[in-house]
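Researcher: I'd like a structural prediction for the single chain below. Treat it as a standalone chain; there are no partners to consider.
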Amino acid sequence: MHQAENELVTLLHQKALKTFPGMTMALGKGDKIIWQAAAGYADAKNHVKSVPETQFGIGSITKVFVAVIVLQLVEEGLLSLDDPLSNWLKKNRLAGIANAESVSVRQLLSHYSGIPSWENQPLWISAARGQQARPNKIWLPDESLDYIRGTNALCLPGEAFNYSNSNFTLSGLLIEAVTAHSFEEALRRRIIHPLLLKSTFLAAGGALDSGNMSRRFHQRDAHFIRNAGIADAFTPAPNNMLDVSAINLSAEWAAGGIVSTARDVMTFMLALKNGKLLQVESMTEMQRWLPADGAEMGLSLFRTDTDDGVVIGHGGNVLGASACVGWYEETDCAIAILTNVGSMHAAPEADCASLFFKQSAVGKLAQAIASRH
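Model: Treating it as a single chain, here is the predicted structure.
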Protein backbone atom coordinates (compact mmCIF):
# COMPACT_ATOMS: atom_id res chain seq x y z
CA MET A 1 0.00 0.00 0.00
CA HIS A 2 1.32 3.44 -0.94
CA GLN A 3 2.23 5.89 1.84
CA ALA A 4 -0.70 8.21 1.11
CA GLU A 5 -3.09 5.26 1.28
CA ASN A 6 -1.64 4.18 4.64
CA GLU A 7 -1.93 7.71 5.98
CA LEU A 8 -5.54 8.07 4.79
CA VAL A 9 -6.60 4.73 6.27
CA THR A 10 -4.96 5.72 9.56
CA LEU A 11 -6.72 9.09 9.50
CA LEU A 12 -10.12 7.47 8.91
CA HIS A 13 -9.66 4.96 11.72
CA GLN A 14 -8.51 7.68 14.11
CA LYS A 15 -11.56 9.76 13.23
CA ALA A 16 -13.85 6.77 13.71
CA LEU A 17 -12.41 6.15 17.17
CA LYS A 18 -12.76 9.76 18.30
CA THR A 19 -15.72 11.20 16.41
CA PHE A 20 -17.71 9.08 13.97
CA PRO A 21 -18.80 5.60 15.07
CA GLY A 22 -18.69 4.58 11.41
CA MET A 23 -17.67 6.03 8.05
CA THR A 24 -16.85 5.04 4.50
CA MET A 25 -14.98 6.73 1.67
CA ALA A 26 -14.53 6.31 -2.06
CA LEU A 27 -12.17 8.03 -4.50
CA GLY A 28 -12.57 8.38 -8.24
CA LYS A 29 -10.58 9.63 -11.19
CA GLY A 30 -11.67 9.88 -14.81
CA ASP A 31 -14.61 7.50 -14.98
CA LYS A 32 -13.34 4.91 -12.49
CA ILE A 33 -13.55 4.33 -8.76
CA ILE A 34 -9.91 3.92 -7.76
CA TRP A 35 -10.01 3.44 -3.98
CA GLN A 36 -12.42 2.56 -1.16
CA ALA A 37 -12.17 2.28 2.60
CA ALA A 38 -14.34 1.87 5.70
CA ALA A 39 -13.66 2.57 9.36
CA GLY A 40 -15.42 2.09 12.67
CA TYR A 41 -18.77 0.45 13.24
CA ALA A 42 -22.15 0.51 11.56
CA ASP A 43 -23.49 -0.90 14.84
CA ALA A 44 -20.94 -0.89 17.66
CA LYS A 45 -23.38 -2.35 20.19
CA ASN A 46 -23.70 -5.51 18.09
CA HIS A 47 -20.09 -5.42 16.85
CA VAL A 48 -21.05 -4.83 13.20
CA LYS A 49 -18.15 -3.11 11.45
CA SER A 50 -18.53 -0.51 8.72
CA VAL A 51 -17.70 -1.95 5.30
CA PRO A 52 -17.74 -0.34 1.83
CA GLU A 53 -21.27 -1.72 1.36
CA THR A 54 -22.62 0.03 4.50
CA GLN A 55 -25.49 2.42 3.71
CA PHE A 56 -25.85 5.89 5.21
CA GLY A 57 -28.17 8.84 4.74
CA ILE A 58 -26.57 11.27 2.29
CA GLY A 59 -28.69 14.28 3.20
CA SER A 60 -28.59 17.21 0.82
CA ILE A 61 -26.48 15.41 -1.77
CA THR A 62 -30.01 14.30 -2.72
CA LYS A 63 -30.42 17.81 -4.18
CA VAL A 64 -27.87 17.06 -6.92
CA PHE A 65 -29.96 14.04 -7.98
CA VAL A 66 -33.04 16.30 -8.10
CA ALA A 67 -31.28 18.93 -10.23
CA VAL A 68 -30.13 16.26 -12.69
CA ILE A 69 -33.70 15.00 -13.16
CA VAL A 70 -35.02 18.54 -13.66
CA LEU A 71 -32.33 19.27 -16.25
CA GLN A 72 -33.12 16.01 -18.05
CA LEU A 73 -36.74 17.15 -18.29
CA VAL A 74 -35.52 20.46 -19.71
CA GLU A 75 -33.45 18.58 -22.31
CA GLU A 76 -36.57 16.64 -23.28
CA GLY A 77 -38.45 19.88 -23.90
CA LEU A 78 -40.94 19.21 -21.11
CA LEU A 79 -40.19 22.42 -19.21
CA SER A 80 -37.84 25.40 -19.12
CA LEU A 81 -35.52 26.58 -16.38
CA ASP A 82 -37.19 29.96 -16.62
CA ASP A 83 -40.73 28.60 -16.28
CA PRO A 84 -42.55 29.97 -13.24
CA LEU A 85 -43.18 27.21 -10.73
CA SER A 86 -46.83 28.29 -10.73
CA ASN A 87 -47.14 27.00 -14.33
CA TRP A 88 -46.87 23.49 -12.92
CA LEU A 89 -48.14 23.41 -9.34
CA LYS A 90 -51.72 24.25 -8.38
CA LYS A 91 -52.48 27.31 -6.28
CA ASN A 92 -53.59 25.30 -3.27
CA ARG A 93 -50.15 23.62 -3.10
CA LEU A 94 -48.42 27.00 -3.21
CA ALA A 95 -50.87 28.81 -0.92
CA GLY A 96 -49.17 30.91 1.73
CA ILE A 97 -45.63 30.17 0.50
CA ALA A 98 -43.83 33.45 -0.03
CA ASN A 99 -42.54 34.00 -3.62
CA ALA A 100 -43.92 30.64 -4.79
CA GLU A 101 -46.26 32.20 -7.37
CA SER A 102 -43.46 34.09 -9.14
CA VAL A 103 -40.30 32.04 -8.57
CA SER A 104 -38.67 30.25 -11.52
CA VAL A 105 -37.36 26.70 -11.71
CA ARG A 106 -33.82 28.07 -12.05
CA GLN A 107 -34.20 30.11 -8.86
CA LEU A 108 -35.31 27.02 -6.95
CA LEU A 109 -32.28 24.99 -8.06
CA SER A 110 -29.82 27.81 -7.30
CA HIS A 111 -31.30 28.77 -3.92
CA TYR A 112 -32.09 32.25 -5.25
CA SER A 113 -35.83 31.93 -4.63
CA GLY A 114 -36.07 33.83 -1.35
CA ILE A 115 -38.44 31.12 -0.06
CA PRO A 116 -37.88 30.36 3.65
CA SER A 117 -36.60 26.91 4.59
CA TRP A 118 -38.78 24.60 6.64
CA GLU A 119 -35.55 23.29 8.15
CA ASN A 120 -35.16 26.58 10.04
CA GLN A 121 -38.64 26.58 11.59
CA PRO A 122 -38.57 25.68 15.32
CA LEU A 123 -41.83 23.70 15.15
CA TRP A 124 -40.53 21.61 12.22
CA ILE A 125 -37.19 20.97 13.95
CA SER A 126 -38.98 19.66 17.02
CA ALA A 127 -41.45 17.55 15.01
CA ALA A 128 -38.99 16.00 12.56
CA ARG A 129 -35.63 15.92 14.32
CA GLY A 130 -36.27 16.68 17.97
CA GLN A 131 -38.48 16.36 21.01
CA GLN A 132 -41.75 15.67 19.15
CA ALA A 133 -40.29 13.21 16.61
CA ARG A 134 -42.14 9.87 16.55
CA PRO A 135 -40.87 6.51 15.21
CA ASN A 136 -44.03 5.59 13.29
CA LYS A 137 -44.55 8.98 11.66
CA ILE A 138 -44.36 8.89 7.85
CA TRP A 139 -44.19 12.38 6.39
CA LEU A 140 -46.09 13.18 3.21
CA PRO A 141 -43.96 14.73 0.44
CA ASP A 142 -45.20 18.30 0.87
CA GLU A 143 -46.05 18.17 4.58
CA SER A 144 -42.91 20.08 5.56
CA LEU A 145 -44.10 23.04 3.45
CA ASP A 146 -46.94 23.61 5.92
CA TYR A 147 -44.33 24.93 8.36
CA ILE A 148 -43.45 27.89 6.10
CA ARG A 149 -46.93 28.87 4.95
CA GLY A 150 -47.61 32.43 6.09
CA THR A 151 -43.95 33.26 6.79
CA ASN A 152 -42.27 36.22 5.08
CA ALA A 153 -39.99 35.90 2.06
CA LEU A 154 -36.26 36.17 2.74
CA CYS A 155 -35.80 38.41 -0.30
CA LEU A 156 -37.20 38.89 -3.79
CA PRO A 157 -36.68 36.00 -6.25
CA GLY A 158 -33.25 36.31 -7.87
CA GLU A 159 -32.05 38.93 -5.39
CA ALA A 160 -29.77 36.90 -3.13
CA PHE A 161 -28.61 33.41 -2.16
CA ASN A 162 -30.52 31.82 0.71
CA TYR A 163 -30.08 28.07 1.15
CA SER A 164 -33.53 26.55 1.56
CA ASN A 165 -34.73 22.96 1.72
CA SER A 166 -38.15 24.22 0.65
CA ASN A 167 -36.74 24.84 -2.84
CA PHE A 168 -36.16 21.11 -3.29
CA THR A 169 -39.41 19.94 -1.78
CA LEU A 170 -41.01 22.15 -4.43
CA SER A 171 -38.62 20.79 -7.08
CA GLY A 172 -39.64 17.25 -6.15
CA LEU A 173 -43.30 18.20 -6.55
CA LEU A 174 -42.41 19.80 -9.89
CA ILE A 175 -40.83 16.54 -11.10
CA GLU A 176 -43.99 14.69 -10.14
CA ALA A 177 -46.20 17.20 -11.96
CA VAL A 178 -44.12 17.07 -15.16
CA THR A 179 -43.54 13.30 -15.28
CA ALA A 180 -46.86 12.12 -13.80
CA HIS A 181 -44.75 9.74 -11.69
CA SER A 182 -43.72 9.87 -8.06
CA PHE A 183 -40.36 11.49 -7.37
CA GLU A 184 -39.16 8.10 -6.13
CA GLU A 185 -40.13 6.46 -9.44
CA ALA A 186 -38.45 9.24 -11.46
CA LEU A 187 -35.31 8.76 -9.39
CA ARG A 188 -35.30 5.02 -10.08
CA ARG A 189 -36.00 5.33 -13.80
CA ARG A 190 -33.60 8.16 -14.57
CA ILE A 191 -30.63 7.62 -12.26
CA ILE A 192 -30.71 4.55 -10.01
CA HIS A 193 -31.48 1.93 -12.68
CA PRO A 194 -29.37 3.38 -15.55
CA LEU A 195 -26.32 3.68 -13.29
CA LEU A 196 -26.97 0.34 -11.55
CA LEU A 197 -26.95 1.95 -8.10
CA LYS A 198 -27.96 -1.20 -6.25
CA SER A 199 -27.57 0.26 -2.76
CA THR A 200 -29.39 3.56 -3.27
CA PHE A 201 -32.99 4.32 -2.37
CA LEU A 202 -35.25 7.14 -1.22
CA ALA A 203 -36.34 6.84 2.39
CA ALA A 204 -39.70 8.37 1.55
CA GLY A 205 -41.62 5.59 3.24
CA GLY A 206 -39.31 5.40 6.21
CA ALA A 207 -38.20 1.90 5.15
CA LEU A 208 -34.73 1.72 6.67
CA ASP A 209 -34.69 -2.04 7.04
CA SER A 210 -31.82 -2.83 4.68
CA GLY A 211 -29.38 -5.32 6.14
CA ASN A 212 -26.51 -2.96 5.27
CA MET A 213 -28.02 0.16 6.85
CA SER A 214 -25.88 1.76 9.54
CA ARG A 215 -27.34 2.84 12.83
CA ARG A 216 -27.66 6.61 13.01
CA PHE A 217 -26.25 8.96 15.63
CA HIS A 218 -26.49 12.68 16.30
CA GLN A 219 -24.43 15.21 18.17
CA ARG A 220 -25.95 15.84 21.62
CA ASP A 221 -24.72 19.24 22.73
CA ALA A 222 -26.36 22.24 24.40
CA HIS A 223 -27.27 23.73 21.01
CA PHE A 224 -29.11 20.60 19.87
CA ILE A 225 -30.93 20.25 23.18
CA ARG A 226 -32.04 23.89 23.00
CA ASN A 227 -32.90 23.92 19.28
CA ALA A 228 -34.46 20.48 18.85
CA GLY A 229 -34.92 18.72 22.17
CA ILE A 230 -34.63 15.03 22.96
CA ALA A 231 -37.31 12.66 21.63
CA ASP A 232 -38.41 9.70 23.73
CA ALA A 233 -37.19 7.45 20.90
CA PHE A 234 -33.61 8.77 21.12
CA THR A 235 -31.24 6.73 23.27
CA PRO A 236 -27.91 7.83 24.80
CA ALA A 237 -24.75 6.78 22.95
CA PRO A 238 -21.01 7.14 23.71
CA ASN A 239 -19.12 10.38 23.08
CA ASN A 240 -22.09 12.58 24.02
CA MET A 241 -24.21 11.37 21.12
CA LEU A 242 -27.75 10.13 20.65
CA ASP A 243 -28.81 7.01 18.80
CA VAL A 244 -31.60 8.39 16.58
CA SER A 245 -32.09 5.29 14.42
CA ALA A 246 -35.73 4.92 15.48
CA ILE A 247 -36.72 8.09 13.60
CA ASN A 248 -36.98 7.62 9.83
CA LEU A 249 -35.87 10.11 7.17
CA SER A 250 -39.22 10.53 5.39
CA ALA A 251 -39.44 14.21 6.39
CA GLU A 252 -36.41 15.01 4.22
CA TRP A 253 -37.82 13.64 0.93
CA ALA A 254 -36.43 15.42 -2.18
CA ALA A 255 -34.38 17.79 -0.04
CA GLY A 256 -32.33 15.09 1.66
CA GLY A 257 -33.96 11.67 1.86
CA ILE A 258 -31.65 9.43 -0.17
CA VAL A 259 -29.78 6.55 1.46
CA SER A 260 -26.70 5.20 -0.32
CA THR A 261 -23.11 3.96 -0.15
CA ALA A 262 -19.88 5.80 -0.84
CA ARG A 263 -19.43 3.69 -3.99
CA ASP A 264 -22.90 4.48 -5.35
CA VAL A 265 -22.54 8.19 -4.60
CA MET A 266 -19.16 8.19 -6.34
CA THR A 267 -20.62 6.32 -9.33
CA PHE A 268 -23.32 8.99 -9.62
CA MET A 269 -20.89 11.89 -9.28
CA LEU A 270 -18.47 10.50 -11.86
CA ALA A 271 -21.35 9.96 -14.29
CA LEU A 272 -22.42 13.57 -13.77
CA LYS A 273 -18.90 14.98 -14.11
CA ASN A 274 -18.24 13.00 -17.27
CA GLY A 275 -21.44 13.95 -19.09
CA LYS A 276 -23.20 10.59 -18.88
CA LEU A 277 -26.32 12.02 -17.27
CA LEU A 278 -26.62 15.43 -18.91
CA GLN A 279 -25.80 17.11 -22.20
CA VAL A 280 -23.08 19.78 -22.49
CA GLU A 281 -25.62 22.62 -22.44
CA SER A 282 -27.11 21.34 -19.19
CA MET A 283 -23.69 20.98 -17.57
CA THR A 284 -22.96 24.58 -18.57
CA GLU A 285 -26.20 25.71 -16.91
CA MET A 286 -25.42 23.63 -13.83
CA GLN A 287 -22.05 25.38 -13.50
CA ARG A 288 -23.18 28.96 -14.12
CA TRP A 289 -21.84 30.25 -10.82
CA LEU A 290 -23.45 32.82 -8.51
CA PRO A 291 -22.28 34.16 -5.11
CA ALA A 292 -23.23 31.85 -2.22
CA ASP A 293 -22.05 32.75 1.29
CA GLY A 294 -18.32 32.65 0.61
CA ALA A 295 -18.59 29.98 -2.09
CA GLU A 296 -20.31 29.85 -5.48
CA MET A 297 -23.58 28.15 -6.39
CA GLY A 298 -24.70 26.69 -9.70
CA LEU A 299 -27.80 24.53 -10.04
CA SER A 300 -27.43 22.45 -6.88
CA LEU A 301 -23.64 22.35 -7.15
CA PHE A 302 -21.32 24.37 -4.95
CA ARG A 303 -17.91 25.57 -6.11
CA THR A 304 -15.62 26.03 -3.11
CA ASP A 305 -11.99 27.15 -2.89
CA THR A 306 -10.23 24.91 -0.34
CA ASP A 307 -6.61 24.72 0.83
CA ASP A 308 -6.16 21.72 -1.47
CA GLY A 309 -7.83 23.16 -4.57
CA VAL A 310 -11.20 24.19 -5.98
CA VAL A 311 -13.91 21.57 -5.37
CA ILE A 312 -17.28 21.20 -7.11
CA GLY A 313 -19.84 19.20 -5.16
CA HIS A 314 -22.30 19.18 -2.28
CA GLY A 315 -22.54 18.21 1.38
CA GLY A 316 -25.33 16.61 3.36
CA ASN A 317 -26.38 16.66 7.01
CA VAL A 318 -29.59 15.17 8.43
CA LEU A 319 -30.72 13.45 11.61
CA GLY A 320 -28.14 10.72 12.17
CA ALA A 321 -25.96 11.09 9.09
CA SER A 322 -23.63 13.47 7.28
CA ALA A 323 -21.81 13.20 3.96
CA CYS A 324 -19.95 15.13 1.30
CA VAL A 325 -19.00 14.52 -2.31
CA GLY A 326 -17.17 16.47 -4.98
CA TRP A 327 -14.36 16.63 -7.48
CA TYR A 328 -11.25 18.79 -7.69
CA GLU A 329 -11.29 20.96 -10.81
CA GLU A 330 -7.57 20.75 -11.51
CA THR A 331 -6.66 17.18 -10.59
CA ASP A 332 -9.86 15.32 -11.61
CA CYS A 333 -9.82 13.58 -8.24
CA ALA A 334 -13.31 12.89 -6.85
CA ILE A 335 -14.03 12.12 -3.21
CA ALA A 336 -17.07 10.84 -1.30
CA ILE A 337 -17.27 10.62 2.49
CA LEU A 338 -20.27 9.12 4.31
CA THR A 339 -20.71 8.95 8.10
CA ASN A 340 -23.36 7.84 10.58
CA VAL A 341 -23.29 11.08 12.60
CA GLY A 342 -25.39 14.18 11.98
CA SER A 343 -24.85 17.64 13.47
CA MET A 344 -27.81 19.73 12.28
CA HIS A 345 -29.09 22.08 15.01
CA ALA A 346 -25.97 21.37 17.09
CA ALA A 347 -23.12 23.88 17.47
CA PRO A 348 -21.54 25.14 14.19
CA GLU A 349 -18.26 23.47 15.16
CA ALA A 350 -19.89 20.08 15.83
CA ASP A 351 -18.20 17.33 13.83
CA CYS A 352 -19.73 16.23 10.53
CA ALA A 353 -18.44 14.89 7.21
CA SER A 354 -18.05 18.32 5.56
CA LEU A 355 -16.12 19.72 8.52
CA PHE A 356 -13.84 16.67 8.49
CA PHE A 357 -13.21 17.22 4.78
CA LYS A 358 -12.41 20.93 5.28
CA GLN A 359 -10.25 20.64 8.37
CA SER A 360 -8.20 17.48 7.78
CA ALA A 361 -5.60 16.25 5.30
CA VAL A 362 -8.14 14.00 3.59
CA GLY A 363 -8.23 16.06 0.38
CA LYS A 364 -4.46 16.27 0.08
CA LEU A 365 -4.08 12.54 0.65
CA ALA A 366 -6.90 11.70 -1.77
CA GLN A 367 -5.23 13.68 -4.54
CA ALA A 368 -1.89 12.02 -3.80
CA ILE A 369 -3.56 8.63 -4.25
CA ALA A 370 -5.30 9.78 -7.43
CA SER A 371 -2.02 11.04 -8.90
CA ARG A 372 -0.79 7.44 -9.06
CA HIS A 373 -3.73 6.36 -11.27
